[in-house]
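Q: Is it fine to ask for two folds in a single conversation?
A: Yes, each is treated on its own. Send the first.
Q: Here.
A: Result:
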Amino acid sequence: MKRLIQEIATFVLGTRCYAVIIGERGSDRYDIASQIHFTKASAEEHRRRIEQTRTFVYITTVSFRWRRR
């Protein structure tokens, strides 16, 4: 029963996704990183990789709902 309700909610609301927002160091330009993540842990791992670079700086992680058709 719980699985059925979860599937209905996913169909109606969509799948929760995460996107990492990054900025170029020394610039006021902001972009969405090249990947859409389906888990918060995956987005956090990507954030840690971004923080190790000298080119980009981590800004924030945003979540959104996506209804794939």
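Q: Second one now.
A: Result:
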Amino acid sequence: MNNKIKYLLSIAILLILIVLIFFYRNYQTDVEQKNTRSNTLPKEQITHQINTLDGNLSNTSKPKPSNINPPKWAQELMYINENPQYNRVDKIQRLIKLLNENKNDASAVREILAHLSNLNPIEAVDDILPFLKNSDPSVQNAAIGALSNASLLTEQEQQLKKNLPENDVIRRKIAININELKNTPNIANEVKQAISSSYASTNPSLEDTKSMIKDILNQKEMSANESSYLATSILNGKDVKNTISLLDNKSTTVKDEVIKSIGNNIVDNPNVLDVLNTEQKREVFSFIHNNPPSMRDDDFSFKNDLWKNALNHF
């Protein structure tokens, strides 16, 4: 009986082994067929797949080249500015030529005037002045900026430590034209602010300073540029007594803004007070001392620090 059971078990084990071997061989055949199909793809199909993958990677990692070239005037502008063989005078002459060639293109005019401005172009004033009357406020602003820098002392004048008469004639021409623009009815506000921010350079005479101070203080509201102009005029010792007298009658907000501008000037350059004589220093000190910032202001802490710092420098 035991022998018979052993015999049957042996037969069962053998059958199981045969079944396992059969399934294993079928599995191996399927794997080989799949590998064969993948390795026998047409060469064109493989190449296409690789190119497609490369293309997708390129599209995600490389910016697409732009087909838009800068306008001719922009290319010429870059060439002039980057050419090491051109000195300051050469650049001004070429920029003037480029400006006149593109005077009807507002974008070109703005950019060229900005680059001229960097060169303090007193030689180019006659070519810049017509743009003060341009219908585009942004062009007018660019012209004001260029004329403001053109009004500064030239390198030669700095070396001689005096103004040259021929340059003062040009500066006076700038001042007259800026005043004409300033008095133009319905002037754009952005142009008005540009004039205020550069007026100390373009119109430094005491007469023009007094006129601008009066115009600013006759307004109901005052911009940051205008408060800065008043502060600069006071610190330059121009019409100090009269300006402070007029400010005393203005609102706390107006006085705060002017004092804040004075404080900022002193922080930037503590020696700025050296321009004032003893009497002027006393007047400015009294004005600041008598007008501390209001504690109700959101920026009271900042204004208060400026106020204290300004007083400490007198």
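Q: Anything structural to flag on that second result?
A: Two points. The chain has 16 helices and no strands. The mean pLDDT is 86.
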